[in-house]
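Exercise: predict the fold of this chain.
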Amino acid sequence: MVVTFHSIEDKIVKYFFKSLSENKSISRYVPSTEQPDILLKLVQKKPIIPSKEEIRVNPPSRSAKLRYVLKRKDFYEFETDIFEKFKNLLIIESFGNKL
């Protein structure tokens, strides 16, 4: 479960969830090859946004978006497999700390 407040954050979460929740073919002209099993089950494609009443009571909540997925049990080792898959994003994120 992830709550985002900016469009770029939401885009990253959306990409992360989508990439780990579906099998993609490289091309429709290339024969399909064995694909790895999916890690997450995307429950709802659209994010959950605050109601009009919530925005009235709490104006900063207007930009919040909640996305969630269900993880398959005993499938990946998060510490090794997920970090390895998104290693390049972690490297890019660490550049901000060096500045």
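Check your answer against the key: Helices lie at 7-19, 52-57, 78-85, 87-98.
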